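I have been asked to look over a protein record a colleague put together. Thanks in advance; the entry in question is below.
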Amino acid sequence: MKENFVIAIDGIAGAGKSTIATGVSKILKVNKLNTGDIYRAITLKYINSNAKIENDKDAKKFVKTLDIKINYDRRKMQHTFLDGVDVTKGLHAYEISKVVSTISHFKPLRDYVIKIQREIAAKGNIVVEGRDIGSHVLPNADYKIFLTASVKVRAKRQFEELVKAGDKKVTLKDLEKEITKRDYNDTHREYGALKVCEDSKVIDTSKMTIDEVIAEIVKYVKGN
């Protein structure tokens, strides 16, 4: 394993990127950057402000209103602050999930997030997860992982999480449709589209437990 390394974990929506990246970072005792939470914070601001973003010109104006910062606590857990308020806990609400892929494809917004990502990653010893980390944001990352899973498996996982959180409105069918839509949006973006890098290690998590995926990534990074 290299010193002062950067691990890029990419993958489709609901493949377990955040949970797995957290597990890997804990074992390796480094920070983890959840890129998706930055986009979700932007989406939260968009929803609450009733902003109108229909093109890059609108997005450029909206960026000027953003104040997003990332901090880590003693346990190396990420906290995302929007306008000085820690909004971490509410960022995975279904209302945000429905909109985030639509908002995040605008170039000015992606440029804003990429700047944050690169500044944090430049410090090294970090696991960065998202959808275009290895291919676009950090193409020189020391280790690249791409996670995938079937639509049905991902929808079931998200459904169980939402039900556990007390959401009784969402249905499994709705989630399958939403995930399929997000997959299309993510892979057909004009800028920063989701794609598998030639030098990425691809892992299908459909039939694997979280611990199994984490163990495989750690083994790969350590070169065992």
DSSP finds nine helices and eight strands in the chain. The CA atoms of residues 19 and 210 lie 8 Å apart.
